[in-house]
């Protein structure tokens, strides 16, 4: 982890995403920035390297494998907890229905949800959420824009022990 000095100790506080790009970033880099505390430019650099992209393009359309690989670079593990991809969209639980279930309030959860015809990443910890729609700020899920969004997959993110 010598390549990324800066954050020496973990805290239970919620880090807001740091968009230092001067433009609107997409959901994958926002979620990763909020978890790691690193700026979006650093997150996008990691993803572009993983994609073998030589140009400095905007990172758009990240998959779960890319998100997991970027988190691993910063010492985090991402594990699939639940998937609803086999169910029709209308039978999948909403974010609000999932919030009513018991879960670890200390862990970060990355949720892949439907937004229109595309997928969207949101980050949930406890009763708060963070994504591009909140501009990287943490807001209560009950006040957030995605309460009725249908969940595709749920991933749990924890600091690696190794």
Question: Would you spell out the secondary-structure blueprint of this structure?
Answer:
Layout (H helix, E strand, L loop, with lengths): L26 H10 L3 H11 L13 H10 L2 E8 L11 H5 L8 E8 L2 E8 L2 E3 L8 E2 L10 E9 L3
Antiparallel strand pairs: 1-6, 2-3, 2-6, 3-4, 4-5
Protein name: Peptidase C39 domain-containing protein
Organism: Hyphomicrobium album
Please give a handful of descriptors for the protein shown.
6-stranded antiparallel beta sheet; 162 residues
Question: Would you kindly provide a brief summary of this structure?
Answer:
This is Peptidase C39 domain-containing protein. Helix content is 22%, strand content 23%. It has helices at residues 27-36, 40-50, 64-73, 95-99, and strands at 76-83, 108-115, 118-125, 128-130, 139-140, 151-159.
Word description of this protein:
The chain is an alpha+beta fold and 162 residues long. The chain has a single domain, classed as Cathepsin B, Chain A (Alpha-Beta Complex), CATH 3.90.70.10. It has helices at residues 27-36, 40-50, 64-73, 95-99, and strands spanning 76-83, 108-115, 118-125, 128-130, 139-140, 151-159. It has a six-stranded antiparallel beta sheet with strand order 1-6-2-3-4-5, covered by helices on one side. Helix 1 (27-36) packs across helix 2 (40-50) and helix 2 (40-50) crosses helix 3 (64-73). Residues 6-11 have low confidence and may be disordered. This is Peptidase C39 domain-containing protein.
